């Protein structure tokens, strides 16, 4: 029989997991991800190795959780968010069910809570974004940033439009570099942060536009960081999946901006236009390159992208971040088995409850 | 088609009302035919369409949700967008004049 303390602990764990699953429900209710993901859905790629990477990380956690925490802290918080449910939960379930990996439900739950705790220490807002924000920076830092940054007024339609085009060219570039499912490898969206005079700041940070380890591209820009100020009533909300949801179109609402490409401040309309054109061209070429890949090449490239987002983690352990030979052998062995299995799945829109069940570490459901 | 008749319904993804000509994009060979100010109609957008998207007056897609690519980009650009119509590329034809109501998620004949 469970003691009162044990019952309390377990109900508190359930409470946290239920909140996490509420965030999953909210995020997936606005998605049609099983049909729209380009160039493939996440499971068409992840199914080949999710158990391998999940058990690798889980073993490190079991060996020395403090070291594992330090290594996980080298990753962006958005990578932790995304990897948590895609890798750790489903990967461990798959490892256990298909390959007899010895992880109990309790261990998977404890590992999930361990990652929640790491995330909690690194953010300012609510951990599961149920307040519809992704606040990473402390209020003091935002105030300093607001003072320190050089803000340019978005004084006319031409400049507002050009900034929108710059945003969509960067979003497309990120998408074409990291595929739809793994975009947090190169960008993050933070906020909205409330500042004075009923305004908010949204941060769009495109921090890796040049992943030479993945693609033979030549991009003269490594990063672009955009600080965008809007009226508080613009209705900007962010979900757990780091998607921006706004009740109103954003372009006309922009009040002022601060854009830093590499380390250079960009203010003039001509500079913004030149950047947009540059990134649009890169995105188009890169997407066309991806569209020419065979399914097997997409699986292998997607696998490499997936592992790449853990690069700092493996660097911390002084290990090679790249997928092991075991992963590539499995892909070569299984060929298009999972690709086709999940492709046929693409005809149906999945309900949010499917994902709630899939990402619940307390069950054995794997889709 | 009678004026004002509802042709399609979908998920309202970016508000705004606009009238314009349809251009159905089924594959990359169609990309060069797209002209500024046309209404982009496609199964779903992908990053190879970046230049087209920035020239579109509105976007209508067969599939997608509120956080899908066309929805996010349309809200950024401030253009109407209706996603998840299931059959836009079949029902709408090149050159058709339509009205897109991105707030209600309705496509009308005009």
Describe what you observe in this structure:
The complex is a heterodimer of chains A (367) and B (110). Chain A has 367 residues and is α+β, with helices and mostly antiparallel strands. Chain A contains 15 helices and eight strands. In chain B, 15% of the residues lie in helices and 34% in strands. Chain B has 110 residues and is α/β, with parallel strands linked by helices.
Summarize the structure.
The complex is a heterodimer of chains A (367) and B (110). Chain A has 15 helices and eight strands.
List the helices and strands and how they pair.
The complex is a heterodimer of chains A (367) and B (110).
Chain A: H1 4-29, H2 33-36, H3 42-46, H4 50-63, H5 65-72, H6 77-99, H7 105-122, H8 139-148, E1 152-153, H9 157-178, E2 187-195, E3 199-206, E4 224-231, E5 236-238, E6 244-246, E7 256-261, E8 264-266, H10 269-291, H11 295-308, H12 311-316, H13 325-334, H14 337-344, H15 352-358
Antiparallel strand pairs in A: 1-7, 2-3, 3-4, 4-7, 5-6, 7-8
Chain B: E1 6-9, E2 11-14, E3 17-25, E4 39-42, H1 50-53, E5 58-61, H2 69-77, E6 81-83, H3 88-91, E7 97-101, E8 106-109
Parallel strand pairs in B: 3-4, 4-5, 5-6
Antiparallel strand pairs in B: 1-8, 2-6, 3-7, 7-8
Instruction: Give the overall shape of chain A, derived from the CA principal axes.
Output: globular
Rg of chain A from C-alpha positions?
21 Å
Quaternary class:
heterodimer
The helix/strand series of chain B, from N terminus to C terminus, equals EEEEHEHEHEE
Sheet/helix structural class of chain B: alpha/beta
Q: Helix share of residues of chain A?
A: 40-55%
Shape label of chain B: globular
How many strands, which pairing sense, and closed or not: the largest β-sheet of chain B? 8 strands, mixed
Question: Main traits of this protein?
Answer:
heterodimer, A: 367 residues, alpha+beta, two-stranded antiparallel ribbon, 15 helices, B: 110 residues, alpha/beta, 8-stranded mixed beta sheet, 3 helices, 8 strands, 15% helix, globular
């Amino acid at each position: 029989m469970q003691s009162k303390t044990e019952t309390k602990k377990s109900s508190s764990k359930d409470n946290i997991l239920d909140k996490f699953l509420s965030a999953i429900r909210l995020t997936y209710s606005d998605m049609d991800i099983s049909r729209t993901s380009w160039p493939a859905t996440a499971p068409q790629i992840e199914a080949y190795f999710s158990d391998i990477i999940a058990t690798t990380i889980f073993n490190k956690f079991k060996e020395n959780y403090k070291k594992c925490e330090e290594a996980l802290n080298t990753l962006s918080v958005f990578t932790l968010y995304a990897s948590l449910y895609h890798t750790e939960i489903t990967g461990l379930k798959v490892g256990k069910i298909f390959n007899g990996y010895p992880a109990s439900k309790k261990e998977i739950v404890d590992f999930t809570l361990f990652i929640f705790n790491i995330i909690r220490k690194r953010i300012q807002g609510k951990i599961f974004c149920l307040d519809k924000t992704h606040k990473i920076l402390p209020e003091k830092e935002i105030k300093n940033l607001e003072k320190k940054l050089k803000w340019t007024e978005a004084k006319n339609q031409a400049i507002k439009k050009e900034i929108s085009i710059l945003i969509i060219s960067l979003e497309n570039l990120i998408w074409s570099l990291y595929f739809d499912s793994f975009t947090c490898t190169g960008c993050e969206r933070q906020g909205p942060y409330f500042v004075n005079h009923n305004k908010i700041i949204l941060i769009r940070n495109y921090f890796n536009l040049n992943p030479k380890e993945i693609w033979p591209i030549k991009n003269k820009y490594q990063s672009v960081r955009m600080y965008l100020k809007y009226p508080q009533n613009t209705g900007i909300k962010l979900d757990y999946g780091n998607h921006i949801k706004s009740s109103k179109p954003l372009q006309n609402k922009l009040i002022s901006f601060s854009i830093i490409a590499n380390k250079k401040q960009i203010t003039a309309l001509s500079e913004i236009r030149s950047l947009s054109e540059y990134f649009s061209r890169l995105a188009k070429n890169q997407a066309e390159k991806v569209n020419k890949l065979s399914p097997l090449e997409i699986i292998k490239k997607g696998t490499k992208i997936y592992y790449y987002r853990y690069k700092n983690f493996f660097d911390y352990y002084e290990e090679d971040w790249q997928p092991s030979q075991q992963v590539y052998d499995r892909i070569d062995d299984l060929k298009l088995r999972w690709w086709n299995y999940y492709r046929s799945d693409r005809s149906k829109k999945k309900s949010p409850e499917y994902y709630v069940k899939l990402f619940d570490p307390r069950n054995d459901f794997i889709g | 088609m009678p004026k004002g008749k509802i042709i399609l319904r979908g998920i309202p993804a970016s508000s705004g009302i606009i009238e314009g000509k349809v251009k159905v994009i089924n594959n990359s060979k169609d990309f060069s035919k797209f002209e500024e100010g046309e209404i982009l109609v496609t199964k779903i957008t992908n990053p190879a369409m970046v230049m087209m998207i920035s020239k579109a007056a509105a976007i209508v897609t067969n599939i997608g949700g509120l956080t899908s690519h066309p929805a996010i980009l349309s809200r950024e650009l401030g253009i109407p967008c209706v996603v998840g119509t299931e059959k836009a590329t079949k029902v709408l034809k090149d050159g058709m004049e339509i009205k897109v109501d991105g707030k209600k998620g309705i496509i009308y004949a005009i």
